[in-house]
Amino acid sequence: MTTFLGSPGIGNIRGEESFPKAAKRALQDTQMRRNVGAATKTIREKRLGAVAECDDWEELRLAGSALKTDVMSRLPELLQQLEANVTARGGVVHWARDADEANRIITDLVKATGSDEVVKVKSMATQETVLNEYLEAEGIAAIETDLAELIVQLGDDKPSHILVPAIHRNRAEIREIFLRRMPGVDAAITDEPRELAMAAREHLRRKFLSAKVAISGANFGVAETGTLAVVESEGNGRMCLTLPDTLITLMGIEKLVPTFADLEVFMQLLPRSSTAERMNPYTSMWTGVHEGDGPQNFHLVLIDNGRTNVLADEVGRAALNCIRCSACLNVCPVYERTGGHAYGSVYPGPIGAILSPQLTGTTGHDDPNASLPYASSLCGACFDACPVRINIPEILVHLRAEQVDSERGGIPGGQEIAMRAAGWAMNSPKRFGMAEKAAGVGRLLAGKKGHIESLPFPGSLWTTSRDMPAPPKETFHQWWARTHEDDA
């Protein structure tokens, strides 16, 4: 086993512009906002019903959180156990320091089979490493078999949701993509979901029957047995995992569970949190190689790509507990309005706001990922929805504090100047009272609307993107003096 320490993550986990800039542009896309808003509302309401059926839901959340915390506390030990058990059952384990190394390993494995085409199960890890583009550059075609991933691939698009990568597309847009990019599709196809699904099924069936190599991710890896597990809704993943001669699985090192029995907890938490189902339609598990049954060659590629950096942060490491259910995305008011592309990473939403900057590290105020911890209202809905109780708001505040501390010294920025001014005023009752009186001018600016829409610099830094409520007619000091005359 190789130990990786300190290598920052690379790949599709850092955008090219800050979240505020990307979000401002996304907010102007009314069609995307309608599509995402309608879809997340539907999933959100269904999930509440599915969770309410479980009397022991909070106990399950506590169990899931405890299991993942245990995994992170002894990750090296469990990884070695997983490697030993996969190897003992006929599999081959490879270790990848980062996305480039993982892509090279997988490409070499595919080339060794003589194949120039692979079928893929939906995999966030391969989206993270930009594997499809890497394979294409090496002359290997990668065919996505998850319907949503196929839509994204044919549309030359990027995923915008962990569970529903094409959530920003509606049925009419998908029909247009199929007509334009899917070979052999009937020109009379409508935008009915069944017709779209049948067209994709016919297209993919030909690929399943001809492919010699499949590439998958993994929802869980069981250290005790060397078993890998994938959960899905369409059955296409099962076709990939059973038909080809060679199966290559790319898995993040954090996806471990200690024992096979531990899967019981997560198989209850994951489907209800992600698709609002009591049980996901397809759960595929495989342990090594079995003669005459399924792929005869199995390779497991374990990728770090910044995860040991996250593990080193005692507060931030909880982000590695994520089981990729996307429940936090569906309840986030910021994600609902901006969509996933504004986050610039394959991991959008609240979990992406804490995971992406930790995986890549940040290089200063202008680093696009440095803005992600601020892409939240800190309303706490993500924590309430998380099936493994990741305290996302706490980690957001922790990362914001780290960012501020890293920029102390030198020429102060607007935020530091504002905080120093506030500190100066609040350190003196007299100065604070004067500031309260000065704030009363804001009522004149707000007028009958009751809120201020624009201020001169530096106040414009705030009002450019949001309104400011008018100051109250009575300050706290005035209220206290009026209601506590006996204390005066």
Number of strands: 12
Number of helices: 23
Order of strands across the widest beta sheet?
1-10-7-4-2-3
Unreliably modeled segments: none
Descriptive notes:
The chain is globular, with a radius of gyration of 25 Å. Helix 3 packs across helix 12 and helix 9 packs parallel to helix 10. 49% of the residues lie in helices and 11% in strands. By secondary structure, it is α/β, with parallel strands linked by helices. The strands form 3 sheets. It has a 6-stranded parallel beta sheet with strand order 1-10-7-4-2-3, sandwiched between helices.
Give the secondary structure arrangement, pairings included:
Elements lengths: L18 H9 L2 H23 L4 H17 L1 H14 L3 E5 L2 H15 L3 E4 L3 H6 L1 H7 L3 E4 L2 H8 L16 H11 L11 H18 L2 E4 L3 E3 L4 E6 L3 H7 L3 E7 L3 E2 L5 H12 L7 E6 L9 E7 L3 H5 L15 H5 L1 H6 L10 H12 L20 H5 L6 H15 L7 H13 L2 H11 L1 H6 L4 E2 L7 H4 L4 E2 L6 H8 L5
Parallel strand pairs: 1-10, 2-3, 2-4, 4-7, 5-8, 7-10
Antiparallel strand pairs: 5-6, 6-9, 11-12
Helix pairs in contact: 3-12, 9-10, 16-18
